[in-house]
Amino acid sequence: MARHKSRPVEEQGEPEMEISSMIDCCFLLLIYFLVATSLVSEKKLDVNIPGNPSAGGTPPPVEPGRIDVSANGAITWNGDMPVGEPYDASAQPGTAAYKAQRHLDQLVEALKTLKEQAVAVDTEPIVMVTGAPSTPHQRIVDVMAALAEADIHTVGLNTTASE
Amino acid sequence: MGKKKRPQDDVNGNPNMSPMIDCCFLLLIFFVVNATALTVSKDPSINMPSAVSCSELKDANGCIVVNIFADPDKMSEKAVKKYNETYKRAGVIWGVADSNEASGSKGFTQDEGQLLSDYISKQKEFYKAKNMDEKNIRIYLRGDLAAPWERTAGAIRCAAAAGVSNMVFGTLPSRG
Question: Would you give the distance in Å from CA B169 to the centre of its chain?
Answer without folding.
Answer: 13
